[in-house]
Write a structure and sequence with these properties.
homodimer, 743 residues, alpha+beta, Serine Threonine Protein Phosphatase 5, Tetratricopeptide repeat, Transferase(Phosphotransferase), domain 1, seven-stranded antiparallel β-sheet, 7% strand
Chain lengths: 743, 743
Amino acid sequence: MDTKSHDNPKNKPTPSLNRRTSGDDNYLLIEAVKQEDVMLIKQLLERGADVNFQEEDGGWSPLHNAVQTCREDIVDLLLRSGADPFLKKKNGATPFIIAGIVGDVTLLRLFLSVGADINECDHNGFTAFMEAAVYGRVDALKFLWELGAEVDLGRKTIEDQRKLGKGGATALMDAAEKGQVEVLRLLLEEMGANVNVCDNMGRNALIHALVKPDNSNVEAIARLLLDHGVDVNVRGEKGKTPLILAVEKNHLALVQMLLEQEHIGINDTDRDGKTALWWAVDLKLTKIVALLCNKGASADCGNIVMLAKRRYLNNDLVNLLRCHGAREDAPPPAEDWKPQSSRWGPALKHLHRICSPVIGKLKIFIEEKYKIADTSEGGIYLGFYQEQEVAVKRFSEVSPRGQKEVSCLQSIRANSNLVTLYGTESVGGCLYVCISLCERTLEEHLGNHGGEAVENKEDVLARDILLSIFKAVVELHLSCGYAHQDLQPRNILIDSKNAVRLADFDKSIKWAGEPEHIQTDLEALGRLVLYVVTRGDIPFETLKIKITKEVIKLSLNEEIKDLIKSLCHPGENVTKHLSNLLGHPFFWSWESRYRTLRDVGNESDIKLGKKNSYILQLLEPTPSKEHYSFHQWTSKIDKYVMGKMNAFYTKKGKKGKKYQDSVGDLLKFIRNLGEHINEEKNKDMKEIIQDPAQYFQKTFPELVIYVYTKLQNTEYARHFPKSHNTLEPCCGRGDGGQQAGQF
Amino acid sequence: MDTKSHDNPKNKPTPSLNRRTSGDDNYLLIEAVKQEDVMLIKQLLERGADVNFQEEDGGWSPLHNAVQTCREDIVDLLLRSGADPFLKKKNGATPFIIAGIVGDVTLLRLFLSVGADINECDHNGFTAFMEAAVYGRVDALKFLWELGAEVDLGRKTIEDQRKLGKGGATALMDAAEKGQVEVLRLLLEEMGANVNVCDNMGRNALIHALVKPDNSNVEAIARLLLDHGVDVNVRGEKGKTPLILAVEKNHLALVQMLLEQEHIGINDTDRDGKTALWWAVDLKLTKIVALLCNKGASADCGNIVMLAKRRYLNNDLVNLLRCHGAREDAPPPAEDWKPQSSRWGPALKHLHRICSPVIGKLKIFIEEKYKIADTSEGGIYLGFYQEQEVAVKRFSEVSPRGQKEVSCLQSIRANSNLVTLYGTESVGGCLYVCISLCERTLEEHLGNHGGEAVENKEDVLARDILLSIFKAVVELHLSCGYAHQDLQPRNILIDSKNAVRLADFDKSIKWAGEPEHIQTDLEALGRLVLYVVTRGDIPFETLKIKITKEVIKLSLNEEIKDLIKSLCHPGENVTKHLSNLLGHPFFWSWESRYRTLRDVGNESDIKLGKKNSYILQLLEPTPSKEHYSFHQWTSKIDKYVMGKMNAFYTKKGKKGKKYQDSVGDLLKFIRNLGEHINEEKNKDMKEIIQDPAQYFQKTFPELVIYVYTKLQNTEYARHFPKSHNTLEPCCGRGDGGQQAGQF
């Protein structure tokens, strides 16, 4: 040990005195005390530094610091300068208690002389006497005892702590826990400490001695306590007895010592019903197993023979257990556990049943049968995190991808469109990331659904799936601030409630506003749209390497083409673009498309066929109009219906007027038919048209996207359905409220 | 040790031979081998039991079991009966490898003689030689070595494991890790094992020796390895050197031994930049601190003096550190961390900055300034769980309430209306439950919003809050299967995005279909409705003890009265009742109420005033009709508007006909006005009425609930807005699509 130096060490910088505010001086004073610079302390005090100033952290004052460094001269100086000898740190500790920690008898005497209470305690109930015991300050302990410190005083603590059973520990327990043999001896032999006092959780000094894993003096401590008649059958955490704790420590001598005690409960179980012998077998402690058996421990606890064999204990030991009452026919506990996942159910049931060492809160077994998927690092396996079924993604502990995965998952908790993080475990250089267990990937899901694209029918499946994916990505970008960077069918999962959950964030990027990261996700989404509507016909890997133009060309219809184009060319406001696309016609039900067409057709200008009308100009087709299905639309409507609808003009007194082939007139036609079709007198039309929503969508498949494109940035966009933007509360009226038509 | 018994122990039950299926016999055969009952084995084999049958768990066959029990006679019997000597267990282990585990030389020789490969390994790469090293089977080890087993063979493992850096360990590392001194000596001194071979993570035998906490032979092992020139500067997990690992073990002798090595990197840091000296100070290992300093360790690593003082190391040691280059003026690392919570921001910043021991993944400090709320057990405090800000609810480890809280929270992950579980920690008899940190309770939130109930205005705040609460409870009941049992304003939280989150599940009950548990929640919800609409005017505690009748009487209007009544008298289908109530008019916007009234008024029967019409009969008021605001409604409409609307009849050729005071005519009036009001010629009416939705709601406040009550179980309920039921996908058309009116 080096020599004790009370002088200012040479390599220490002197705080500058140039700063002049008194606030600075207060900090400088504390710094000067810490560095034991008496001259500077005097200077600062003279200049008016506050001698009772307390640091924000912990509430240390100059006096507390002076006591901690055992500088009696500085303490003296500070007290003479008006330092409050009773000032409390934030934790309630007074200078007197700190003197107990550092074991400075002179200072203890000094503070007693100015009025300190010998049993005064901090907010956790620590007295100077207890602190001296904790830190092994024998002289201070003796001094305090001689002056009347209460030996068996238990710690009083704040209400919240008391409610949890904290507090009540004594100096004896402290000495036992910290391995302070000398202090323990003093307490027991000279100061008459009660060896069997218990703390508020009912633990005595023997339990305290066994609590910490690294009490190197535990044997000497236990010997002393046993010699003084400590109760050997008290319980610690999880109901463990001293014997069980000693076994868990693999401490043969201690086990032996405890077994020599007359009243030792050799077969006592902990809260899980396990005995010392069970633990010894489980931990493969062959010597302790033999010792316990020879001392008469019963092996009649669960299927201990099976456990012993699984741990490959010697056959001698197995037979020894048999001779001590081990039952081999104990049936395995009834399994009434039911998995939630149906796909992984059988494997989960198996994993639930087998014995496997647990990693923290995770039960996992690396075997092909429990494997969910391959990854570039360590695969994804089934597991139980705190008894709940999870998918476990494994990474190397130093893997940047693992770090990305965890950091992103931590930021997206409680988002129902993204997978949920249950927790992580890290052991043996391997990181285990536990997330919600899903049933299948999007790839597999589409495979289950016929594998055929839906043409000329409402594709509800694709719409629902893509809507969920879009919402998930919007949430990820806007609420969570991450860009995914690896959107593909195998990273999109379907859970047991058939909900879509976005997963696999190991390439994700904490998004700081760079448009290119969002753009990468949008382009992948474009390919996903095509992948989903074609039911995975073209492998995603193929789509991924195609240029955007080619992807757009593969679109099944104009609507999908427009959606993909829009994803690949987001324009300037990249950030908001995706959430705006939730309002794209692709996501409108056929029912609400029909409603929209009727509402637009109900505009006065359209009904009146008003010349020079803005909306009619907007809607007039560009040159290549013959490509549209609605070019010469009157010829494409059922002849009988067209005739009857034209006849209404006559009735209304507009003789000879007919519907024209303009888009405006088509919309008016749709509106008028919609208002009429359910009337008794139009039963014949209804017979032909059936559901008008279906009829118009099939007859003019690109009418909706055409109208949408023309009107989207005008006031007429008010007729469009409300968007599915998840960031706004979704509380719309359904589109099912059809009204009886009336002219 | 007891004598080795090869006979069937007396206390073992004999398996019954009454069961006759051959499947049973296969299991019986395995059981008979386990119990070493030769007679029974013979009987079963003769009767046709499958000698190569493998158990589902682990794939153990009779032969594997016979080898494990070292019964050479049984092994012989089985082989003669056709047992496959190369059969693999599920983990790939052959009988030969198991013979290595049990160290039975006779069996090893036997299997080699029938063709076993001396270096054959299981799926994790374990050979018989490695197993003999693991289990300390010296004779077997020697035998295998003499017959040519490869000494330095590293474990080959499956792809997934190899990617994580697993595998590559040798018998030497096994012996070092398991504390098998004798084996280690043999390997090094007789078998010429390479002391410096590393596994796939770059760890040598010395690191392996230091990895496990309970290697009681670590000193002898290290001595042997050092004597054979093992590299002392390799790294283990988290970049820790053998010296740092020895310090962390508080193993003075080992530290000393390592420091005597010529090339020891005394100042090497681990991945977190911490040296052996730093760890010694942190762990208060005074002797090791002194030893390291005296051996020349540098103390120039972070603010080690501050750490030493915080740990109350003796001043001698602090000064010793100063003499070894400790800097005291090292500024604390710059804090660029920003809290997410604004309310708890300052306290979180402080907690983030201070040093506090970590409980597992949780940083917490029990002090008033970090306290969020009181509870009956241990309070709720701010904390950081894996660096994320959380609220930490404390329970005693044995508290049933704590168990309930955790079990419910585990079942409700990823529900955005409920608080989210981040994780739990358990230490010192205390359970720490870490959940999402919210900004304030409902109580505080309502206090912030004026504290005044809204009368005669659309109360969007109350509607939104209650809708979220209702949805949360529906999710809890139906998706999660729990009943809350303690719904009250302090258990309903508002997060930083102003979303409502249901919390506090420590009284919750896993719901098994008992209607009374749901009913308890519904009754509490009834009181919450009143509490929210009155902005907390009446304390919840007062409402809670009021009888239902009184609560209903306090309702501000008929709608609220109906909602509360319905909650308190749920009828027979208690389970579905709450989700049905999401469609109650209380949750309809004023806009959609207006739309509903217009749509009902558009029914043909109402427009035509058809006699004996079902809907008109339904709508006719009961005796006490004068209580309704819409009694004699024509007198309550603005006179000018009433006159003009009546005049339309005349125009339509129905001379002298007027609107009557019936509900049916009122609805017709609302419908007709709605269709007309936006037309140019009706500008004067629009001027008076302004927004018709507001006008009708204010003039006839209980019209909507009246119509709802009368029509709710009829086909006309189709005109009601779609419900907010969260369990169905919510993708409706907004109610903003207003149509230009037209007769």
